[in-house]
Every structure is written in structure tokens, then in C-alpha cells.
Amino acid sequence: MSRVRNHMSRHQQRSRESYIAPRNSRYRLLIDKSTIHGTGIFAEEAIPRGRKVIEYMGQRLTWAQAARLERKLERRGAPKNDYLAQLNHNWIINGAVRGSGAELINHSCKPNLTPRRIRGRLFFFSRRKIRSGEELTVDYAVGKDAPRRVCRCGAVKCRGTMNLK
Ligand SMILES: [Zn+2]
Question: How far is it, in rounded angstroms, from Cα 25 to Cα 83?
């Protein structure tokens, strides 16, 4: 009983902006402080295994445009852009522009989501059943030749880096 009441008051305190827009996911997803890094995305209801959870949306960039953007941010001393996702060998998706919220999903070496590229679009599917309240994670699988990115995901078999080995 008290659990139910707590759950309700938690909802009432949050603004609608704290949720992923319903048009971007058929599941209720909360934007909140991450236990891994900065802001993260949390399931607010159970998600069965093998379901399309969210599409990674944003501005399409060629690899050359994405490289230019990264150099520009670097020159300005801006923090590393974590919102560039590889779609295929032609295109990168910049989730910082017109993103769906999927760009806020943190990296884990033992993720509960897996990326799937379908007809020129990038989706995150559930790898297993996800419980309500769990943070959503995906393996960023940064190239092994790319600059090394430290990982502190906390998984038992954490690689210690977001890069592939
Ligand atoms: Zn890790």
C-alpha cells in the first residue's frame, strides 16, 4: 500500500519533460540521474525481451561531417560529444540535434539493449526482459583504434573501456 502511494507521489512530482515523448517509444521511459554517468534513461514499466524499445534519431551526418564536428568541439574544449552513433559506412546520426532521447542512454559492458539497423534506421531492442526501474544501457562498442574511452559501468566483466578489445 505504501509502495503504491510512493510510486504515485513520485510521478506527481515529475514534470512531463522528464519522460521520453510517447511518440518515440511505446514504453514509459524516464529521464533521470544515472547511476553510471550523468543523465540516463530508465524503464518505468517492464519490457519483455526482443522488443523495439526506441529509435536512435537525429541529424544525419556523413563521416566527414561528423569528423569536422568532433574537431570543432575539440578546438572549443567542449566535452566529448557522446551523441554520435554509427548507422552504416555512409552515415552517422547526431542525436544532439532532433534526438529521440535514445542519445541519453549510457554505455554498459553488460547492456540490456542491443542496436539493430533496419532499412537505414537505428533501433535499440531489449536483449532480455527489463524490469521496471532499471536503467537502459547499450554497448557503445567504440572502435578499438579510436581514442580510448574509460568505462566505469560497474558490470562484473567490465572491460574498463568503452572500446572494443
Ligand atoms: Zn564497463
Answer: 18
